[in-house]
Here is the input.
Amino acid sequence: MEQLKQAIKTKGVVLSDGVLKVDAFLNHGIDPVLMDEIGKEFAARFSQDNITKILTIESSGIAPSLMAALYLKCPLVFARKQKSLTMNAEVYTANVYSFTKETHQAISVTSDKLNKEDRVLIIDDFLANGQAALGLASICQDAGASIAGIGIVIEKSFQPGRTLLTGAGLRVESLARIESLSNHAVTFVDDILSEVQ
Ligand code: 5GP
Here is the structure.
């Protein structure tokens, strides 16, 4: 997705060989025009999949997921990282290792938000080691819901997340795929492929 790649190139900050900061437009400051395009792109990729619900994780997954939900005309549910006082119903929980915080965190969704009739699109802002997406997938499984696929805004293809998820039989659609963050520069998978061709 060209607009997203441009935003990453011009506004992203490479913090290390493994971490990209995109708080100018995706997960702290949010660019609504770009989120709208991201939502349209996810909707186009999953338009034939009869999606009944989008599932994401707070807080960074919410903005792109909301726009995708608007275009797919389905509700959005986000997993909470902290149990709220209002979550007194039965909950589905998964234990997720956080890539950025380097700690384990329980994430949960109340059981009335997902059911076995649901066909779920899981969305997240980044894919690194795949732990957040796997946690969300396990919540879908607990609810008996089927998973149409995983939509990722920015995939770091040099980390093992994609292999783990596709190995588990899950379809992964990423809007930008990063081959490397070495030397403080972002290189996209497409750039490498077009050099080879
Ligand atoms: P995973 O669970 O795939 O290891 O990591 C995905 C989660 O970690 C995402 O929800 C995202 O919030 C965070 N994350 C992973 N890599 C990065 C990164 O390079 N930059 C930022 N800002 N967040 C990241």
Observations:
- The first helix runs from residue 2 to 11.
- The pocket of guanosine-5'-monophosphate is lined by residues 19-22, 27, 60, 99-100, 124-132, 161 (CB under 6 Å).
- The longest strand covers residues 146-156.
- The CA atoms of residues 14 and 185 lie 7 Å apart.
